[in-house]
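Lecture 7 notes: from sequence to structure.

We start with a single chain of 140 residues. Read the sequence below before looking at the structure.
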Amino acid sequence: MEIKVKKLVPEAVLPSYAHVDDAGMDLFCLEKVVLTPGQRAQMRTGIALEIPKGYVGLIWDKSGLAQKYGLKTLGGVVDSTYRGEIMVGVVNLDSKPYTFEAGHKIAQILIQKIEKVNIVDVDELSVTARGHHAFGSTGK
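Now the structure, written as tokens:
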């Protein structure tokens, strides 16, 4: 599969896989951003994508940034019809500020096939062993 990427500014960094078998491509910060504890920001990447019809780009955390520094991405569905700049919402859940410099990794994007479904309005759903038991229902 081919994904066309347009640099909106010359200094933008193209998405890339860190390792040959990685699922997600790294997205890079366009400019310096300092996130104080509890602060969120919409971070620029300086790129636009042409995702093929029938696919979607899903933006996820960089696990190292999430685990080590409490940085969490916010939302992140990039439809195949979108041609604007890829922006990444990030919140700092840590107690210390974090500084992103231009060119730093901020998130990753996975390109996945979309499965369209037909919605059927019903009065009842099938019975399962789990049923309606929700959060924490399987114990510790």
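The two ends are 42 Å apart (CA to CA). Keep this in mind for problem set 3.
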